[in-house]
Amino acid sequence: MTALIALFWRDLRRAWGSGALWLPVLFFLLVATAFPFAVGPDAPLLRRAGGGMVWVAALLAALLPIDRLVRPDREAGVLDQLAVRGFADEVIAAVKIAAHAIGFGLPLMLALFPASALLAQDTERVGLLATGIAIAIPALASLAVLSASLTANHKGGSAIGGLLVLPLAVPMLIFGAGMLDPSGRGAIKLLAATSLLLTVIGPFAAGAAMRGLRE
Amino acid sequence: MTELLRLDNVACIRGDRLLFENLSFALSRGDALWLRGPNGAGKSSLIRLAAGLLRPAAGTVERRERIALIDEAAALDTELSLRRALDFWARVDTVDGHAVDRAMDEMGLSPLAEVPMSMLSTGQRKRAAMVRVIASGAPIWLLDEPANGMDDAALVQLVAAVARHRANGGAVMLASHFALGIPDLAELDIGARA
């Protein structure tokens, strides 16, 4: 257990070290800033489309750092050293998912509030967005670590990685943006179910991909 | 003489090339085995097979004790100081800081404790990897080219560390293209079998 905690802190330290913490957050805010300029100052339109935009930006922000989630550890031999010590790949993947969920999820939640303000979201919709994205963060982290494991053998794998997991993330986009609509409040249950499913599958799929890296 | 590691009729295929087959040996407490052979003969693959990182195409590998491994990658975070990079593995191996202190003394790295990993030379990095192996307390050492880039003084420390480990009931398997000057060493020439 001490070993897994050490592993978790190492991942978190590497995620937040050297200012990398701000990269997904900046990207997220950048989208929120640029969108009103592109759509125009029509507040009702912005309010209606902005919620969906927040979801798209959150998804892309989660996929932004996949280049440094698994590949550096593989190249430095860290994954091999952990395997020699008898850690299951699934356990390592689960720790990485947890660290990524905290590492990018916490700053993302903080950035959500200024981003919502920029997109003219009212208090009720900000609450719904925050709830929905908080539910989705473990699944987003799971998908990011999965695609990072699948593409760890390829340089510049993040582009392929995004393509790989995008179809898996689409249900969350639909339900997450859907629950903003007053007639679609039941979507939160479907969002939670989708997020749970992806979070549970993630460690096993990513673990299998990590095992494949050694062959 | 208890066996720590046993390979039975092991074969290894990389890509579509058969590197070796029908390879059997056992390592008992106090044993040391030198894998030799030309480049590409499969020394590193055999080390990875023994470590459990590769599956044998045929045969069985039995490990009865914990393993410490050195391969081409140091697995020490370059953004940290040497001491903190080694402390991470000490926590993973759940050994205390004194084990790291002692091992750093053995490999002559104590004066470099606060130097960032990224500033260390190839030989110093190999010594750091050796510190991790010593500090881990694992009975089976698998060392792939442990002496790469090491100077004469470091080589002496490496040989002494191997001797101490064997005296304490450990076993060592090392791959190297030259004899390191370790006494009482069994040899396995992989190239000669092909």
Write up this protein.
- The complex is a heterodimer of chains A (215) and B (194).
- Chain A is mainly α and 215 residues long.
- Chain A has one domain (2-214).
- Chain A contains nine helices and no strands.
- Chain A has helices spanning 2-16, 22-39, 43-63, 71-75, 78-84, 89-118, 123-150, 157-178, 187-214.
- The longest helix of chain A has 30 residues, at 89-118.
- The mean pLDDT of chain A is 89.
- With 194 residues, chain B is of the alpha/beta class.
- Helices cover 31% and strands 27% of the residues of chain B.
- In chain B, the strands form two sheets. In chain B, strands 5-6-7-3-8 form a five-stranded parallel beta sheet, with helices on both faces.
What pair of chains forms the biggest interface? A-B, 21 and 24 residues
Q: How many strand segments of chain B?
A: 8
> Count of helical segments of chain A?
9
Shape of chain B: globular
Give me a quick take on this structure.
Chain A is mainly α and 215 residues long. Chain A has 9 helices and no strands. In chain B, strands 5-6-7-3-8 form a 5-stranded parallel β-sheet, sandwiched between helices. In chain B, strands 2-1-4 form a 3-stranded antiparallel β-sheet, covered by helices on one side.
